[in-house]
Design a protein that fits this description.
The structure holds two protein chains of two kinds. The mean pLDDT of chain A is 97. Chain A has helices at 28-53, 67-75, 90-95, 100-107, 132-146, 164-175, 195-198, 223-238, 269-278, 280-290, 296-318, 326-330, 338-351, and strands spanning 82-84, 121-122, 152-157, 180-186, 189-190, 193-194, 215-219, 244-249. Chain A is an alpha/beta fold. In chain A, helix 6 links the parallel strand 3 and strand 4. In chain B, helix 1 packs parallel to helix 7, helix 3 (66-77) runs parallel beside helix 4 and helix 8 packs across helix 12. Chain B is an alpha/beta fold. Chain B is 35% helix and 21% strand. Classes of the chains: A alpha/beta, B alpha/beta. At the A-B interface, helix 12 and helix 13 of A face helix 3 and helix 11 of B.
Chain lengths: 356, 331
């Protein structure tokens, strides 16, 4: 199966283009935008991790190492497309236009963090594994029914492919030819469980065979592959050719979440090796250097810009108003039921010192 | 002759590990299934070092598929094993709900006792630990409502081990709910080796004649705190730790509420359809004429458990419980 689904690379770890047919399409502008977005979300990720360590936000799921997969796929989307991320895909969500401040609010236990900016079709992060996959199929099918050219993208990990929702969502999309991209980030571990214990399948991409849809396996740390393959799959989807399963092979350097200690279940030396060899940002840096486009002062500017943007978002998040208890009652139904109205009144009276 | 049993001081989660260890040691048929329970020892370390001790054949890291491994657990249970399944968080049990309520809970009846499901499902539940979204559900009532499965919930290390062993030895499926909030917040003495806490029996934590307080799991410390403040105000509370949510110890409830005539039920689950309503039904059925006040419920609200930024507003607090106590006293 690995030979049937070879891992596609457009730019290799040395920053060399290995598929010459992409040469023309890889412009300095595009590569620089990849670089900028990856720096941006890595800066965010590291800051969030440190905020968690300082107790300024809650449990956090870091994505460092997966920026190539997230930036490439998110940049391939059109404004009107739908995104269904998991809790580890806020990098993609930010690239697609989510507010950094809102993403931080989410990790600080606030429902306000699930509200996307106006006009952005970004679902709240899927928490129970794979549950967002059928949603993406349904939203995409709705676009098809409405006759638009919008598509949707569902993000999920390797472990998610064991859940029924993965199979049911893909099958639905396959049968109804829904314009959806099933974008898998195979980072090899579902918390502590390695892929070898998760499945006998050697690839995720091969799971497309069962549903007779295209399955593509790419080097997920190659942002160029991630971008161009997502773009190609989206084009097919928009043309009525149905869904595609993309397996982006990648690696998370850090823990599953800040509640987890990966040293218990995997060789952490692997992170160092991968960081040196296959880091997604390093790869673009190498390509820029090979092309003579790497400009230290521009890179500094990008990094400083990212820090400034993230710091501003942190300030904004921390200045956000305290949780309003009325909010837990007001958004359950369009019109609250009598139980909710009564409970709200009693509780607000209670904390206001008025006891009825 | 030595008659005393050695006792260890353990946290609630360590008592669970000890109970699993005790039963794995005693019965080869006991087998653990779940996500990340092997090398990682479970996300809460409830199965810490058990794979090392009993091997990968008996402590199995399953694929990430709750319906799959709960369903497989049923197949193993009818075929000679005693599966103890870990669901990572109660909020993630729903893909397995069909397997639990249409199969585990009714296979005995469907086959008139020919096939039975001696299986335990363990699941951490509840809010109050700043856990992420959907990790904080307290949906015991969607299981107690369904016939054919027992539901238990310890509030201290001693009960945790004893109830777990009773659950493993029970001939029918048992959902064993673990109060996440109490995993490491309290320690208690736990005897070495095997002992059981009978399923269906509640525990009287405090004797008092004025008000009966009924709670379980993570609401026990909150309820005891409220009882303490009430005592300082001259109100003496009878505090019942239900422990067993199905079947409920109706005798202990009746005995207590016939004495006090006033009751406050505390649970962090939503009010509507909550177990508090079954308790009110028991009081009506057994002790109606003894009541001096309507039963008060102090519960989570009829809203999905909110993100942790709001959870302090959702969860019953000692202050809210105390207010409930004062209300039934003043009636």
């Amino acid at each position: 199966m690995e030979s049937q689904f070879p891992m596609k690379q457009i730019v290799d770890t040395n920053g060399k283009i290995v598929l010459p047919e992409y040469k023309e399409r890889i412009t300095a502008e595009l590569a620089k935008e990849f670089f900028k977005q990856m720096i941006r979300i890595r800066t965010f990720d590291r800051k969030a991790l440190s905020l968690q360590r300082q107790g300024r936000i809650g449990t956090y799921a870091p994505f460092e190492g997966q920026e190539g997969a997230q930036v490439g796929s998110a940049m391939a989307l059109n404004d009107g497309d739908w995104m269904f991320p998991t809790y580890r895909d806020h990098g993609a969500a930010i690239v697609f236009g989510h507010s950094l401040m809102r993403v931080l609010l989410f990790w600080n236990g606030r429902n306000e963090g699930c509200v996307p900016p106006v006009g952005k079709r970004i679902f709240p992060p899927g928490i129970p594994i794979a549950t967002q996959i059928p949603h993406a199929a349904g939203a995409a099918f709705a676009e098809k029914q409405k006759g638009t050219s919008a598509a949707s993208i569902a993000y999920f990990g390797d472990g998610a492919t064991s859940e029924g929702d993965f199979h049911e969502g893909i099958n639905f999309a396959s049968v109804l030819r829904a314009p959806v991209i099933f974008f898998n980030q195979n980072n090899h571990y579902a918390i502590s469980v390695p892929m070898s214990k998760q499945m006998n399948s050697k690839t995720i991409a091969q799971k497309s065979l069962a549903y007779d849809i295209p399955g593509i396996r790419i080097d997920g740390n190659d942002v160029f592959s991630s971008y161009f393959e997502t773009l190609a799959a989206l084009e097919k989807a928009r043309n009525g050719e149905g869904p595609t399963l993309i397996e982006a092979v990648t690696w998370r350097y850090g823990a599953h979440t800040t509640s987890d200690d990966p040293g218990r279940y995997r060789d952490q030396g692997e992170n160092v090796r991968r960081r040196e060899e296959a880091d997604p940002i390093l790869r673009v840096e190498r390509w820029l250097k090979n092309e003579g486009l790497y400009d230290e002062s521009w890179v500094e500017e990008v990094k400083e810009g990212a820090v400034a943007e993230v710091e501003a978002a942190v300030l904004e998040m921390e200045a956000f108003p305290q949780a309003n208890p009325a909010d837990i009652f007001d958004h359950v139904f369009a019109k609250p039921t009598w139980q909710i109205e009564k409970q709200k009144k009693n509780y607000l009276d209670f904390i206001g010192g008025e006891r009825s | 002759m030595k008659t005393s049993v050695d006792v260890k001081t353990l946290t609630l989660v360590q008592a669970i590990t000890d109970g699993l260890d005790t039963m794995m040691n005693e019965k080869q048929e006991v087998i653990l299934l779940g996500e990340d329970i092997g090398k990682n020892g479970g996300v809460f370390r409830a199965t810490d070092k058990l794979q090392e001790k009993y091997g990968e054949k008996r402590v199995i890291d399953t694929p990430l598929s709750e319906a799959g491994f709960v369903g497989a657990g049923i197949g193993m249970a009818v075929n000679g094993f005693l599966p103890v399944i870990e669901i990572q968080f109660l909020g993630f049990i729903y893909p397995a709900y069909e397997q639990i309520v249409t199969h585990a809970s009714r296979l005995r009846m469907r086959t008139m006792g020919h096939f039975t499901v001696p299986m335990v499902i363990r699941a951490p539940y509840g809010a109050g630990v700043r856990a992420p979204e959907i990790h904080c559900d307290s949906t015991e009532a969607v299981f107690t409502h369904m016939p054919g499965i027992k539901v238990v919930c310890p509030s201290n290390p001693y009960d945790a081990k004893g109830l777990l062993i009773a659950a493993i030895e029970d001939p029918d499926p048992v959902l064993y709910l673990e109060p996440m909030r109490l995993y490491r917040s309290l320690k208690g003495e736990v005897p070495d080796g095997k002992y059981t806490v009978e399923i269906g029996k509640a525990n009287k934590l405090l004797e008092g004649e004025d008000v009966t307080l009924i709670a379980w799991g993570a609401m026990i410390p909150e309820t005891l705190r409220a009882a303490e403040v009430a005592k300082s105000k001259g109100i003496k509370c009878d505090v019942i730790d239900l422990r067993s949510l199905f079947p409920i110890d109706k005798d202990m409830i009746a005995e207590s509420v016939q004495k006090t005539g006033r009751t406050v039920v505390v649970h962090e689950a939503h009010a509507t359809g909550g177990l508090g309503n079954d308790i009110i039904a028991i009081i009506n059925d057994t002790s109606f004429l003894y009541q001096k006040a309507p039963v008060e419920r102090v519960t989570g609200f009829d809203v999905p458990v909110p993100y942790f930024g709001f959870e302090d507003h959702y969860l019953p607090t000692p202050e809210r419980i105390l207010y409930g106590i004062e209300k039934v006293m003043k009636f």
